[in-house]
Every structure is written in structure tokens, then in C-alpha cells.
Amino acid sequence: MRQLGPVTLLLCAAAYAQPQQPPPTPNSTLKSPEVNPDKSVTFRIYAPEAKVVQMRGDWMTDPPVQKLTREDNGVWTVTAGPLRPDLYTYFFLVDGVQVLDPKNNLVKTGLSSSSESMVDIPGDESAFHALRPVPHGSLHVEWYMSKATDGMRRLHVYTPPGYDSGSSRYPVLYLLHGGGDTDAGWTEVGRANFILDNLLAEKKAKPMIIVMPDGHPIKDPAQRSRSLEVFSKDLIGDVLPLIEKKYRTAPGRENRALAGLSMGGMQTLEVGLSNLDKFSYLGVFSAGVRDSAEFEKAHGDILSDAKKTNQDLRLFWIAIGKTDFLYKNNQTLLASLDAHNVRHVYRESDGGHVWWNWRIYLSEFAPQLFR
Amino acid sequence: MRQLGPVTLLLCAAAYAQPQQPPPTPNSTLKSPEVNPDKSVTFRIYAPEAKVVQMRGDWMTDPPVQKLTREDNGVWTVTAGPLRPDLYTYFFLVDGVQVLDPKNNLVKTGLSSSSESMVDIPGDESAFHALRPVPHGSLHVEWYMSKATDGMRRLHVYTPPGYDSGSSRYPVLYLLHGGGDTDAGWTEVGRANFILDNLLAEKKAKPMIIVMPDGHPIKDPAQRSRSLEVFSKDLIGDVLPLIEKKYRTAPGRENRALAGLSMGGMQTLEVGLSNLDKFSYLGVFSAGVRDSAEFEKAHGDILSDAKKTNQDLRLFWIAIGKTDFLYKNNQTLLASLDAHNVRHVYRESDGGHVWWNWRIYLSEFAPQLFR
To answer: Whole-angstrom Cα distance, residue A240 to residue B113?
Structure first.
């Protein structure tokens, strides 16, 4: 290998990307977001013509938006926090138009209009989901033909460190995203892969494969009432066989877990309880739940034969935050399970319907699996 | 498996993602972009307070931006095209603020401020890079500790259909992105994975692994002059050994190709010509090139021993568009190679410095590899 010296001119990368540079403005050198030493964060956006600029961050509760202040050069700015170290999502409202931070390429890809920018505040509290110098598993993106939807679908798969160099078979956690997310959500913003890497580095969890399918099988709004039925068919009839063919999975229900957040928590309840021959661990995070009568009607067999259900389910873990808008809804689920003596573990956390909680839930749920 | 009936209320996914719904506005049901039957595209953004809304799409040449028209309800709209079927990138300028399309979750993640929205116009001309019902390879995301940068880095890897079910070893194409992109660029917008899936389905290319590293090893602007040197060390000293350990690669220089676009084309030239013991195929797409004197000085050994160079290089493929701002720059490279009798293949296309060309170049370059 010949040594390469500096090639200054050639390395002005931007010049290759943007041949016609506009004249410089305060925007040219603007930095946003900027994490300050005290863990506060300064947000900036260049919008000289705007009348009102606000922002919404998922750490805000009341009021739900914060105003930015205009400087003379047309840059609007606000400092939030200090904030507890974590990965947060936010967006600007420029004269009411919801926009991502133009200076930030850390993006959470949402479903249709719910994409947001993200800011990562490093620190002890978020170390469990940070990218750290530990052995890393791989993330895989797979495209497959779904018989359930009669179309191409996508899913994400995490394999643990050592998967590629060995021949072991691994248990599988099927992990479902929320209503505003895609199959990339659990890694892009949920950091499921880094959470597992870190747990495994500290020997706090069993090595496992995590499969993150797409929870939105139906694009046509008129057909949405069939979503759960089609999702269930896709998961059981297409995804499971695909994964068991393509990856070195350990066989049988004792090696399969199903968990999900919000809409994915509802899917976990509905699909999981209807397929206890396939799954023996369920994790229900901040789930949308049917009302008691409807739930008891749909899952009468599970509730009426609690003895069998309690044998089948090695772990039935239900978690929600105290200020989650689905909190009361979840209490009715817990009451139904209690009334029928269906064993479960209830985890109540602070906070609401936010990723902060879902990352913590995963970090607590995963270590209990496949023991 | 129990059958699941419709659960209408629960499936209103948005209700779970956004507990506090704002009152409806024309934005609530807005659709953008909308591909019309004649392959024109209608773009819309709700911005009732804005004075001027423009957009820039990578299909535009002169003028480089297009104005949107305000409707009475505060929605701005414009129809572009009909456009040749392809995957295009665009953004809005709302009173001068560069924003992604708030209604579109198809995002090209750029480096810092260069993220853009994308619109996919299906049709015969873009079928070669479309997601089609053919066997699909897998895309892998790997995190690794780089000795060259002394930090964690990320790369993308494509493995062809059949990789997981067999034990064959595969040749490897190392494929480098441009200055405005990340290691996700060649798949997110370049669709390298689908291009290969489609070529392989038609038996037009040899099955290969494609490795897409991160071309920006240095974040600190003051250190940027060392970028090429550090990139080269990372690629040769970290990435190659990682890939050859983790993936079933065929050994030796005859099973390795290096190619890249724009900044990545420059890196291909510089790193490739300095490491002909590692690579025997080079693909230089729309590259930034040193001036003749500098190039001839840096690669005197390659130029002066054309006989050896021509033996070493099974393919030296150089492509650029007629209206690319680097067109003249590339002609000086071609003149240097001609003057020294260094064998190469020159491909001149229509168009400029755009993904349209880079996808075509990859679809023409890959079939020539490892024959």
C-alpha cells in the first residue's frame, strides 16, 4: 500500500455534492442542535421571513411546545433543559409548518407525516442504549414476498455478536413497533440493537435474534379494519417461516418471544394470546387494549383455562407509564387478568407514551427471556 | 392459530402515536407527493403564513427552482413533469427555509444539512432499480471499531440471494458514496441492492457481495485534509479484514473491485491506484480528479509502467455525464491515461451530477465484474 498524502482541494466534499453553492448566509455555518456541557440543548433554525417559530420535543409535557426567539440575523434560537441524557425526538413549527431540523441528519423515519429529528445527549442514564466500544451484533434488512399481503414487505433483524463465526442456534424475540413508526423504528430510535449489544457485553441477557417486522400491512385506509387479521397472517404465515429458514433459530415455542409497544403492544396481546403454541413469552409495552368485555370475549379460552395459560406463558410482562394516556385502559386489562387468575408481571414506570420508557422496558424485558 | 376478526377502534394507528390530536386543518388530509397517471408529480405543502414557497428537484436544470402557488386554504401546490420514471430527490424552500416534504416519509439521509425527500415514479425506465418480486439479497448494517479513526464506524453490506442457504464464497465490490451522502446512500437512494437483485434475477451479473463503507472518517473540519489518508487506512486496514472475517469472501485481488461516485470516485482513483495488489477492477463515476500534473506526480509508478498496470487492472471504467460540472476535469484524467497508454474504458452519458446516472453506471459496471 502506497502512502497517501493530503489532497486538500479534492477533499472539500461539499463542493462535489453541491456544484452550485448559493451565496453564504447565517445559515451556512449554523449548528443545530448543540448539546451544551450542562446537558442543555440549543436549537437553531434560519428563518428570516418567519413570524413565529416554535418547537415540540418529546421531553415536553406542559406546555407541549416552546417558542424560539428571533435574532437580528434571522436565526431563531431556544435552549431547552438541562435534559436527562437520552435520545429525544423533536421538530420545528415554522409559521405552523411542521419541519425537521434542516441542520440535523439524525432522523427518525415516521409513518407518512410523523418523521422527526433526533438529538442524542450522552451520559450515564443513556449509556444502556448508547453505541459503545463493545462487540456489536449485525442489523439485517430483508425484503420478502408476503402471501398475506400479496406484495413485497420489509423487516429488520438483529443477530448477536458471534452469530457469523459460530454455528449455534438462537432463540428469537419478535419485536413490534408503534402506530407512528416503521420496521426501522426499534433500531433507528429504539436502539434495540445497541441495548442488546450492551446487555450481552455485561452478560445480562441470553444471546438472541430480534426480528422487527412491519406492523402496517395495509396502505389503503378503507381496508384498515383488516390490519390486525392481515398482520397476524403475515407474522405467523410469512415472517416466522422466512426467519426460521434464513437464520439459525432454536426451534419451538420455548424459544420464541413476542413483544411490542403501543399498537405493537396491542398486536402482541391479540396475536400472542391467539398463538400460544408459537410463543411462550409476551411483552406488552404501553399497549392499546380493548375494553374489558371485548377483551374477555375475544380471549375467553385464555382466561377461562388459567391453569393452561399460566403453564404456557413463561412470562407475561405488562408495562406502562403513570402519565401514559393509555394508563386507565391498561388497568382494565390488569383487572381482567387478575379476575381470571392469569399470571402476569406488571411494571409501572414514571412518564408517558415515549421512547424513553420503551427503551427501558426492552432493557428490563430482554434479560428475563429464554432462561 | 385462532382467527382474528376486525378490531376497528384499536387499529386507528395514529391515535396511539399522537395522543393529543390538534384540530383538523387542510393539512390533515393533504397528500404529497402525488404521482399522476401521466407521470407528472403534484407536490403540496400547507403553509398558510408563508410569503413564497419554492421547491428544488434533482431533475431540474434551468431554472433550478420552481415556484408553488398558494390556494385559498393555505395549501401551496405545483405539478412537475411528466418526468421520466426514476427515483428523484427534492426539497421545499418555505420563505427561504430548506425543508423536507412534511407529508413524505421517503427520506434520503444526507450529511448534515443535505437530507432530502424522495419521490418514486414507477415505469419501464426505472424498472432496473425497482423493488420487484424477484429473489432478494439481504442488506446488513455493521458497527466496528476502527483503528484508523480510533472510534466506532458503520458500514452497509449487501449479500446476494442464496448467500444464507449455501456455503459458496463470493467476490466483493467495495462501493463508495459521494460527499453529501452517508454509508446508507448507495442503498437508500442508489438502490444498489435492488439493482443487483434485478441483474441477478436476469443472470446478467455474477453473484457478489457489495460493501458500502462510510467515506467521511473525519468529523472535525480542521482535520479534513487528512480525510483521504485516514479513509484509505480504514478501508484497507479495518474494513477489508472485517469483511473477510465476517463474510464468505473469495480471496485475492482478482475477487475485489472498488468503485465510487463523485468524492467516492476520487477515493477509488487514489486508494485503488495505490493498492493494485488488493483490487483488480476500478469504477470511477463522476469523480473529482486532481489536475494532470498533480495526478501524474502522485501516480507516476502506475503511469510509467503501463504494461504492468494494464495487466493488473482487469477493468478501469470511467464514466461521466456530458453536463456534469466535473466533465472537463475528467477529460484531463482521460488525457493523462491516454498519454501513458494506460488502458481504460470511457463511458460518457447524458445528464449531470445526479443519481439517475450513478444507478445506470452501477447497472452497467457490475455485469462486467469477476468474469
So the answer is: 39
C-beta of residue A365 within 8 angstroms of C-beta of residue A205? no
CB distance B105–A109 less than 8 Å? yes
Locate B11 and state its grid cell.
Answer: 387499529
Tell me: do A72 and A93 sit in the same domain: yes
Which residues, 6 or more positions from A62, have their beta carbon under 8 angstroms from its beta carbon?
none
CB contact under 8 A, A95 and B224: no
Whole-number Å distance between alpha carbons of B364 and B351? 16
Same domain flag for A233 and A250:
yes
Cβ-count burial A233-257 (b if 16+ within 10 Å, e if not): bbbbebbbebbeebbebbeeeebbb
Chain B residues 195-234 with a CB less than 8 Å from chain A:
216, 224-229, 232
Chain A residue numbers touching B45 (CB-CB < 8 A): 97
Q: State which of A98, A122, A146 marks the end of a domain.
A: A122
Residues B43 and B166 in one domain: no
The rounded distance, in Å, linking the Cα atoms of B185 and A173 is 29
CB of A96 within 8 Å of a chain B CB? The answer is: yes
Domain count of the fold of chain B: 2
CA distances from B261 to A56, B208, B320 (A): 38, 19, 10
ipTM of the complex: 0.89
What is the per-residue pLDDT across A177-230, written as a single tens digit (0 to 9) for each?
999 899 999 999 999 999 999 999 999 999 999 999 999 999 887 888 899 999
Does residue B8 have a pLDDT over 50? Answer: no
The Cα A92–Cα B97 span in angstroms is 12
Which residue segment(s) compose the domain that B211 sits in? 128-368
- Assess whether B77 and B145 both reside in one domain: no
Can you read off the three cell numbers belonging to residue A176? 413490534
One domain for residues B149 and B118: no
Is A158 inside any structural domain? yes
A86 and A221 in a common domain: no
Q: At residue A124, does pLDDT exceed 50?
A: yes
| Boundary residue ending a domain (A81, A99, A122) | A122
The answer, for A29 touching chain B at a CB cutoff of 8 Å, is no
Q: Would you say residue A322 has pLDDT above 70?
A: yes
Amino acid at residue number B81 = G
Q: How confident is the model at residue A102 (pLDDT cuts 50, 70, 90)?
A: confident
- Do B137 and B199 share a domain, yes or no? yes
- End-to-end alpha carbon distance in chain B: 49
- Put simply, the chain A residues between 62 and 81 with a CB less than 8 A from any chain B CB are 64
Contact at 8 Å (CB) between A56 and A90? yes
Instruction: Please report the residues numbered 264 through 303 in chain A whose beta carbons come closer than 8 angstroms to any beta carbon of chain B.
Output: 266, 270-271, 274-275, 277-278, 288, 290, 298, 301
Overall size of chain A counted in residues: 371
Percentage of chain A beyond pLDDT 90 is 77
CA–CA dist A88, A338 (Å, integer)? 35
Interface of A with B in 163-192 (CB under 8 A): 164-165, 178-182
Residue B16 lies in a domain: no
Q: How many Å is the Cα radius of gyration of chain A?
A: 23
Cα separation of B57 and A263, whole Å? 35
Closest in A99, A164, A247 to B102, CB measured: A99
Confidence of residue A4 (pLDDT cuts 50, 70, 90): low
Binned at pLDDT 50, 70 and 90, residue B175 comes out as very high
